[in-house]
Design a protein that fits this description.
It is a multi-pass membrane protein. The chain is mainly alpha-helical. Helix content is 73%, strand content 1%. It has helices spanning 31-34, 40-46, 61-96, 102-127, 129-148, 153-181, 187-215, 219-239, 249-254, 258-277, 287-310, 324-354, 359-387, 391-407, 417-444, 451-485, 493-498, 501-504, 509-541, and strands at residues 17-19, 25-27, 546-547. The two termini are 24 Å apart.
Length: 554
């Protein structure tokens, strides 16, 4: 269904209302400080460079379609990269004989992706959407070329760090551009299109990526990504608007909080390294992990004080944290990320280690999750547009995902493929429903000029939540496996952790059976970590308010 593209009424930014439990509108928590705008000229002055001319009107239909086609292309690239790199990194490590550096591939990507999120959030307002998008895609292009040309594992890891600088910003930038063109009241339709292209990227990445590696080598997938990036660069330059007036670079640079960025980067790097290394490379009680986490906590405190007390142009507007719903949706994004990423990490482990499915079978089973996530994403977006309410969607999605995590306890060594696919379907419905709803909730809880910041910060919370969820579930699995295997004579727990092939190579079938059962129990118990994250997110969602969604973009 298409939304009306004729001019919509201009509604003062400060007059946004929220719907309480008795469905009576009342003033938004942040409206008292924002105040109503006396004229459209004031609204125009508040808009970022390049958007002031819009003044509440939706763009022409052709322009809108071109912009959405560009964003769908970027979404496709992000999903294609995610799927192909995850499935082919083992081939890279095998070629370079560097399995000890295997974990650094993902860590390097997450470090740069997480650290750069707030920087893009500030730069999109300072320099415009087009230049930030071009920089992000170009960074990913450089990273892809370096990946394809890598002559060592170290070079490959550095290349993935470049990819993180670019692709880590894709999600935030896409949401920001959609918010520029589409009022939050109708944004569900268009976020659904991005969800479909994301799912298509996963499907093509799983099938075409695997075929390319089988017929040629792992480098082919990065040359594919390079070609896609060139197309995306052309589309962004052609269809994403540049500022309509000359940007005073010196003035905009002075408004960037470099000290805040530096503190943020240090805190994120220490946090990501601590969570990534803890329980794997180093023991949780080791001095280096304790030091990293303590430094991260200390720098976060300093960062918070600086931003709240002294920063002239804070990275994160203070008023965002004065609104309960804004804070709670960020917490919910963190918890959702922890659940989803831990499932996407340890469900494949179950499929490959316990069921011993081949790569193609595992990919097809996981694609069931992606397919139904796309379907749920579309249905949720359309329903929110129809009803004008969104909190119900967050609660329902998290409730379904909670059910899926609980049902993971049914998995066993001999579980049928029907049970596995059924659980993937339930998990996909819960995951997909949350994707659209959390974006709408975040944008609806702040005034227009704060949309870029809360979108980038929500993406950051999602990413760090994912790292935390993977770490928690991994620690549960490792500790449980070690405890259960310790009572089995002649079996090395460390050898099992290093390679699952060890347990399948045991000659004593009785002992092998005990070890496999222990591994299965450990995986099953690790799903309780995912369950804890999503259940906490469900509880948090009951504190959210439903705001009347804007029908204007300026």
């Amino acid at each position: 269904m298409e939304i009306p593209l004729e001019p919509l009424e201009t509604i003062p930014t400060g007059e946004k209302t929220s719907i309480s439990s008795n469905s009576q509108p009342h003033k938004d928590e942040h409206s008292t400080t924002q105040g109503s705008l006396a004229s459209t000229d004031q609204t125009k002055d508040m808009l970022p460079p390049g958007l002031a001319h819009m003044k509440g009107n939706l763009p022409p239909r052709v322009v809108l379609y071109c912009v959405m086609a560009t964003l769908c292309m970027v979404s496709f690239i992000a999903a294609f990269d995610n799927m192909t790199v995850a499935s082919n990194t083992p081939h890279v490590a095998a070629e370079f004989n560097a399995f000890t550096l295997y974990g650094w591939v993902n860590t390097a990507f997450l470090l740069t992706a997480s650290a750069c999120q707030p920087i893009y959030g500030k730069c999109v307002d300072a320099f415009g959407r087009r230049i930030c998008f071009l920089c992000a895609i170009f960074s990913y292009l450089i990273g892809s070329v370096l990946c394809g040309a890598s002559q060592s594992m170290l070079m490959f890891i550095i290349a993935r760090a470049f990819c993180g600088i670019g692709i880590g910003a894709f999600d935030s930038l896409m949401k920001i551009v959609v918010a520029d063109y589409i009022p939050v009241r109708y944004i569900g339709y268009y976020q659904s299109l991005l969800g479909i292209s994301w799912g298509l990227g996963y499907v093509v990445g799983a099938l075409l990526g695997g075929l390319a590696v089988d017929r040629t080598n792992w480098r082919t997938i990065f040359w594919m990504s390079t070609g896609l990036c060139v197309v995306a660069l052309i589309m962004v330059y052609a269809f994403i608007e540049a500022p309509q007036h000359k940007v005073d670079v010196k003035t905009q640079i002075r408004r960037i909080d470099f000290l805040g960025i530096g503190l943020w980067a240090v805190a994120v790097v220490c946090l990501v390294l601590g969570l990534s290394w803890g329980g794997t490379t180093y023991e949780w009680r080791s001095p280096i992990i304790i030091t990293l986490l303590c430094v991260s906590l200390g720098v976060i405190i300093v960062f918070s004080v600086w931003e709240n007390k002294w920063a002239p142009y804070p990275m994160i507007p203070r008023r965002i944290f004065h609104n309960r719903s804004s804070v709670l949706i960020l917490v919910a994004a963190f918890l959702y990320g922890g659940c989803f990423q831990s499932l996407m990490t340890y469900v494949p482990l179950y499929l490959s280690v316990i069921r011993r499915d081949d790569a193609m079978t595992s990919n097809l089973e996981l694609l069931c999750l992606v397919l139904f996530a796309c379907i749920a994403n579309v249905i949720t977006g359309i329903t929110i547009v129809k009803t004008g309410k969104y909190v119900w969607a967050i609660r329902l999605a998290l409730a379904v995902l909670t059910l899926a995590c609980g049902l993971m306890q049914l998995l066993g060594r001999e579980s049928s493929i029907g049970l596995v696919v059924g659980l993937m379907v339930v998990a996909g419905i819960g995951s997909g429903g949350m994707i659209n709803a959390e974006i709408i909730a975040a944008q609806g809880s702040v005034v227009i000029e704060h949309v870029p910041v809360i979108v980038t910060f929500m993406t950051f919370c999602d990413q760090v939540g994912g790292i935390t969820g993977i770490t928690v579930a991994g620690s549960i699995l490792s500790n449980t496996l070690g405890t259960k295997v310790a009572n089995i004579p002649g079996v090395s727990a460390s050898a099992i952790r290093q390679s699952s092939d060890y347990m399948w190579q045991l000659t004593d079938k009785v002992i092998q059976n005990q070890v496999v059962n222990a591994y299965m129990d450990a995986i099953r118990i690790s799903f309780y970590g995912s369950l804890a994250f999503v259940a906490a997110g469900l509880l948090v969602s009951f504190g959210l308010k439903t705001y009347v969604m804007r029908k204007h973009v300026a």
